[in-house]
């Protein structure tokens, strides 16, 4: 297991049509470090965003897709995505409010 600090766990938010649709249910989607655990993601969200209380965390691992450019073959980068559900009495996360 990697020794990750809380500011290294969350890499960026996911801004898609599906992730914006579930904001009403207080579910937020992030790209996280591939070696981060659910408890590390929970701690990172609670420390980075004031007033956020995490109820649950679901994580998904994505492998790289095969790509081809001419006769050169390769793969895209693998990544991990986390869907964080906040508690009912929690404050909303501000980075998604302007969307």
Automatic annotation (TrEMBL):
Q: A Pfam family in this protein?
A: Ribosomal_L23
| One GO CC term on file | ribosome
Annotated InterPro entries: Nucleotide-bd_a/b_plait_sf, Ribosomal_uL23-like, Ribosomal_uL23/eL15/eS24_sf, Ribosomal_uL23_CS
> Which top-level group of life is the source organism from?
Bacteria
Which keywords, in A-to-Z order, does the entry hold?
A: Ribonucleoprotein, Ribosomal protein, RNA-binding, rRNA-binding
**Coiled-coil zones:** none
Write down the Gene3D superfamilies for this protein, in alphabetical order.
Answer: 3.30.70.330
* Family statement drawn from the similarity comment of this UniProt entry: Belongs to the universal ribosomal protein uL23 family.
Q: What does this protein do?
A: One of the early assembly proteins it binds 23S rRNA. One of the proteins that surrounds the polypeptide exit tunnel on the outside of the ribosome. Forms the main docking site for trigger factor binding to the ribosome.
Instruction: Describe, as the record does, how this protein assembles with itself and its partners.
Output: Part of the 50S ribosomal subunit. Contacts protein L29, and trigger factor when it is bound to the ribosome.
The name this protein carries in UniProt is Large ribosomal subunit protein uL23
Recorded source organism is Anaerotignum lactatifermentans
What gene is it encoded by?
rplW
